[in-house]
Amino acid sequence: MKKILIFDRMNSSKFPGGDTVQIHEIQKFLVNNGYRVKVSDQPLEDLRKYDYVFIFNLTNPLEAYVHMKACEKHQKPYILFPVYWNLDSLKMPMYFNIKSLAKNLLPKAMKSLIRSIVFMKQNKEIIRNFNIKPRELLSADACIKRIIAHAYYICPNSNAEWEHLNDNFTLNKLNNKVKVIYNGIDVEKLNNINQDDSIKEKYKLPDNYICCVGGIGPRKNQLNLVNAANQADINLVIIGQASSGCENYYNLVKSTAKSNIYFIDHLPQNEVFKIVKSSKGHIQPSFIETPGLASLEAAMLGVPIIVANTAPVKEYFGDSAIYCEPDKVDSICNSLIMLKGTLVSNDSFQHSVISNYDWNLTLEKLKTLV
User: Fold this and answer.
1) Residue 230 and residue 189: Cα distance in Å, rounded?
2) How far apart, in whole angstroms, are the C-alpha atoms of residue 156 and residue 148?
3) Which helix (H) or strand (E) holds 22?
4) In degrees to the nearest 10, what's the CA dihedral of 165, 170, 176, 178?
5) What pLDDT sits at residue 91?
6) Are the C-beta atoms of 220 and 249 separated by less than 8 Å?
7) Helix crossing, 108-122 with 61-74: angle to 10°?
8) Nearest to residue 224, comparing CAs of 324, 100, 97, 88?
9) Concatenated DSSP letters for 122-190?
10) pTM score, two decimals?
11) From CA 63, how far away is CA 55, in angstroms rounded?
């Protein structure tokens, strides 16, 4: 029986995200198929008894680099799930507190240096354990290149993500290592969610609303969304808490919202699904997603979805979603009005999501890799 260790983010318990869901679905799938799997947020985990290691999330390149060093120390092959997009390439606006403004105005090399210094200061024991030299962490891009170059396999969530990685790091020679593994949904769990209008009374929600589920932060773009909902005078229910380091943004979103915007910080997953099921639809106008698990889940629940017109999202949803331009409030506003006027759900879209994005189907490829 093969044994696998999956490294999770060190802060995932406090700030769970789509990568957290993906990790635990992979664990469940592999265990159900006869593997022994442990998920750990401890970089100093003893890897000697494992056959393979999974590393996630190049948006935290220094942490991923430490995980790679752990694999090198114990001579373990690792499979990389990049969950990557160059956030500096997006049209995300700067926000209005001094700390955020200063950070955005700094050159990329300076920002990378500051992150490295902070990371090394906070993780001295880890750095010492793996004998990592300070110069190794000075460039996030150099860390990412090395992590990718030494991976046993690379498993992006879309072809678009791989093309973006290749555009940023020129990795064509590694194409034979690339195995795209799409994100998925728990079809069985979602099939058991029935419309329950009492959920509206329970959370004091209006009769008709559009909802948005996800951590609140600049990448998810709730500020433009709130401005658009204000402009359209459409009821919007936002379910989520502030993402790590995004408390000021969260406060700005809440202070911008009018009385037609409803906020719910955190709920059990089944309650979230019931709110989505009872909605007119779901919107996720993020500057980037691959493709956004909440959008997949909403489509599976049979409600129309609005998503941003970015390459990974289009790869998943094709012509079946309503698209908006995330950097334009008017575009988001028009998409909300269009969705509000939608009378019926798209049954063929729902069936397509079930047929293509069940975790049990999307993860089947993993069995050929380990």
Assistant:
1) 34
2) 11
3) helix 18-32
4) -10
5) 80
6) no
7) 50
8) 324
9) HTHHHHHHTT--GGGGS-HHHHHHHHHHT-SEE--SSHHHHHHHHHHH--GGGGGGB------B-HHHH
10) 0.90
11) 10
Domains 3-181 and 187-356 share a fold: yes
pLDDT score, position 161 = 95
Could you tell me the strand order of the sheet in which 210-213 lies?
261-264, 236-239, 210-213, 281-284, 305-308, 322-324
* Ordered mean pLDDT values, 10 residues apiece, the chain (370 residues): 96 86 96 97 96 95 96 97 89 63 64 84 93 91 93 96 90 85 95 90 95 95 98 97 91 97 93 96 96 94 95 95 97 96 75 94 95
The token duo for 136 is 């190794």
Instruction: Specify the fold of 187-356.
Output: Rossmann fold (3.40.50)
Render the burial of 103-135: b for 16+ CB within 10 Å, e for the rest: eeeeeeeeebbebbeebbeebeebbeebebeee
Strand partners, 282: 211, 305
SS3 state of residue 283: strand
CATH code of the region 3-181: 3.40.50
The answer to whether 150 touches 68, Cβ cutoff 8 Å, is yes
Give the per-residue pLDDT at 95. 62
* Residue 341, pLDDT score: 83
Q: How far apart are CA 304 and CA 324, in angstroms?
A: 14
- For the chain, which residues make up each domain, given as ranges? 3-181, 187-356
Within a 13 Å sphere around the CA of 308, how many CA atoms are in the beta-carbon half?
27
Q: In what order do the strands lie in the sheet with 78-81?
A: 36-40, 3-7, 52-56, 78-81, 153-154
Radius of gyration, alpha carbons of the chain: 21
